[in-house]
């Protein structure tokens, strides 16, 4: 610097005895880049009286790991070079910051096997309101024999397979439980519920429900009928679906089918009347 014709040498340092310019502090200033990603730290300091050291470093911050993200609790946070991404988990929809449960129209029911070792073939079907015959080609199998096999202990009620019937939402339909078996296979069905829930979950509120609470067994409620399948024919009355006095958890009766003639193979459908789906 030259002032009044004289030359002055000005030293810049963090020493208290000399003029201080842009001196550092114990915690260097940080700059947050993008939506989240890196922290840029600049540090200027004297290592001794003869030399300066200027160090610039970029250290990435993982907002996901540090819990600094704004992802919804039902979303997965993924760190990126300049921030982070939020993606809703399976079963949820949204932008990752707000995720809502995806609900489907589920059909659930409860069932019991008298002797699981005798299980042969059970199916669950859905069909149009115009058809009372599940074998006329217009019906859809919701769950086949493999899917319907319940691993619950013998003579114990358990929730059956839950089926997504969203594709039929708003339509008039019928449902049917299909039994193929002999004397060793005795199948009880009760508490059919149709309602909105997460995929695979039993609805907590039933928009449509059906049971077999009938005061005069073995007759079925008017909303249900026992229909013959294709041959072999069923000769014995007890091969029909009927109401049983065997109690379910929430009712005194349930629907049941078995075969009282061991040599005869039963092929029977328990068919509902028309159901208007939500």
Topology:
Blueprint: E1 2-3, E2 6-7, E3 30-32, E4 38-46, E5 52-60, H1 63-66, E6 75-80, E7 83-88, E8 92-94, E9 99-101, E10 103-113, E11 121-128, E12 140-143, H2 145-148, E13 158-159, E14 163-164, E15 172-181, E16 187-198, E17 208-210, E18 224-228, E19 242-244, E20 254-257, E21 266-272, E22 275-276
Antiparallel strand pairs: 1-2, 3-4, 4-5, 6-7, 8-9, 10-13, 10-14, 10-16, 11-12, 11-15, 15-21, 15-22, 16-17, 16-20, 18-21, 19-20
Description:
The protein is mostly beta strands and 278 residues long. It folds into three domains: 12-60, no CATH class; 69-101, Laminin; 103-276, no CATH class. Helices cover 3% and strands 42% of the residues. It contains two helices and 22 strands. It has helices at residues 63-66, 145-148, and strands at 2-3, 6-7, 30-32, 38-46, 52-60, 75-80, 83-88, 92-94, 99-101, 103-113, 121-128, 140-143, 158-159, 163-164, 172-181, 187-198, 208-210, 224-228, 242-244, 254-257, 266-272, 275-276. The strands form six sheets. Strands 10, 13, 14, 16, 17, 19 and 20 form a seven-stranded antiparallel beta sheet that branches. A hairpin with a 4-residue loop joins strand 8 (92-94) and strand 9 (99-101). It is elongated, with a radius of gyration of 36 Å. The termini are far apart.
Short account of what is shown:
This protein has helices spanning 63-66, 145-148, and strands at residues 2-3, 6-7, 30-32, 38-46, 52-60, 75-80, 83-88, 92-94, 99-101, 103-113, 121-128, 140-143, 158-159, 163-164, 172-181, 187-198, 208-210, 224-228, 242-244, 254-257, 266-272, 275-276. The chain is mostly beta strands and 278 residues long. The protein folds into three domains: 12-60, no CATH class; 69-101, Laminin (Ribbon), CATH 2.10.25; 103-276, no CATH class.
């Amino acid at each position: 610097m030259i002032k009044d014709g004289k030359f002055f040498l000005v030293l810049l340092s963090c020493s208290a005895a000399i003029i201080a310019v842009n001196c550092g502090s114990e915690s260097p200033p940080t700059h947050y880049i993008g939506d989240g990603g890196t922290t840029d730290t600049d540090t200027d300091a004297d290592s001794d009286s003869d030399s300066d050291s200027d160090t610039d470093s970029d250290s990435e911050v993982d907002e996901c790991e540090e819990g600094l993200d704004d992802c919804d609790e039902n979303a997965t946070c993924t760190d990126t070079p300049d921030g982070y991404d939020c993606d809703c988990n399976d079963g949820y929809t949204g932008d990752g910051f707000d995720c809502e449960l995806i609900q489907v129209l589920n059909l659930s029911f409860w069932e019991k096997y008298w002797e699981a070792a005798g299980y042969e073939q059970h199916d669950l079907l859905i069909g149009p309101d115009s058809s009372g015959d599940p074998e006329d080609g217009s019906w859809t199998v919701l769950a086949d024999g493999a899917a319907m096999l319940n691993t619950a202990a013998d003579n114990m009620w358990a929730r059956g397979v839950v089926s997504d019937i969203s594709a039929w939402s708003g339509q008039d339909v019928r449902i049917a439980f299909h039994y193929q078996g002999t004397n060793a296979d005795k199948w009880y069905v009760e508490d059919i519920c149709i309602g909105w829930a997460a995929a695979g979950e039993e609805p907590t509120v039933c928009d449509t429900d059906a049971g077999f609470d009938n005061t005069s067994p073995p007759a079925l409620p008017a909303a249900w009928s026992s229909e013959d399948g294709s041959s072999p024919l069923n000769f014995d009355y007890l091969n029909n679906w009927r109401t049983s006095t065997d109690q379910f958890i929430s009712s005194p009766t349930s629907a049941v089918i078995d075969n009282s003639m061991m040599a005869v193979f039963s092929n029977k459908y328990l068919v509902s009347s028309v159901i208007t789906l939500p």
